[in-house]
Amino acid sequence: MKASGDFHYRIGSRIGGWRPGAHAGLARGAGDDFVVHASLFERPDPRRVDLRASLRDPRGDWLVRVARQRSQVAVAAAVDVSASMNFGTPARKLDLAADFVAALGRASFAAGDPLSLCAFDRCCHDDLRTPPTRQPGLAELFASRLRSTPCRSSGHDGLIDALMPLAGRQALVFLVSDFHGYGSDLDAALDLLVRARVTPIVVWSPDEIEPPDQDGLLRLRDLESGRLRDLWLRPRLRSRWRAAVAERRRTLQARFLARGIRPFFLTAPFDGDALTRHFLEGE
Q1: Residue 43 half-sphere exposure, CB side, CA atoms within 13 Å?
Q2: How far apart are CA 253 and CA 258, in angstroms?
Q3: Looking at the chain, which terminus has fewer C-beta neighbours within 10 angstroms, N or C?
Q4: Is residue 1 predicted with pLDDT exceeding 50?
Q5: How much is the pTM?
């Protein structure tokens, strides 16, 4: 069965915004999530009069049903465009990230949520920043610009600047990166997002997860530092390669789970159904 290119996200907690949307909210208004009865004098809305409750009221008041309305949530994605995202054939990791961004644009449009997008490496790229919008075409445009980005700079110092507009806000934030070479800058970024629902999208190429099948000399280049290294590929080294990948995955999971964050590991091709299940399982 072919993997779907679309996904749907869900928020595990209630949203405190006043603007109507698709998610469970805290604000009282039009909706079916009943909260309490109130007198018609306090809430003069005859359309919501509850006749049965009014007849049972010992004071004889006319009672109306008060409900919580469904609300929208701000959605944002910060995409790593550092040199390591240039890895992968025939598609780079950044191309896979672009597929995700395009799908996120369609998902946020379906939910009626505003979506903002930005990109970073050693700085935050103002030319790759999209203000909050409900137009899915802008996400497609952003994705196409990502696919033409060369990914030459190393470092992730721009992550803090990229996330600063979301500091202390209630939002759904996607961090899209391979998460190679991060230090305390990642912890500082997560500290900014204490009120947000954060979903790290860990983008790994199949070429870095699984070693080549043939034995022989293999020359590797570190895309961040530019250093070359020669390896003699053999069965024992393949086992160590796979063990290192598994250990790296466990380390990343532990780092995020310590903050109550569940990462999603994304590899080619982009599978929207798997990402939808990730959100449903996190409820």
Answers
A1: 19
A2: 8
A3: N
A4: no
A5: 0.85
In the numeric block, which tokens belong to residue 89?
Answer: 């054939």
Whole-angstrom distance, CA of residue 225 vs CA of residue 234: 25
Q: Which of 201, 202, 193, 198 is nearest to 173 (CA)?
A: 198
Identify whether 7 is part of a domain: no
Domain with 130 in it: 74-281
Q: What digits encode the pLDDT tens for the residues 124-161?
A: 998 899 999 988 789 999 999 999 998 888 889 999 99
Residue 146 domain flag? yes
At 13-67, the pLDDT tens digits run 777 766 767 777 766 777 677 777 888 888 888 888 888 888 888 888 888 888 7
Asked whether the beta carbons of 183 and 113 are under 8 A apart, the reply is no
**How many CB atoms are closer than 10 A to CB 184?**
7
Nearest to 236 by CA among 265, 217, 258, 215: 215
**What's the structural domain count of the chain?**
2
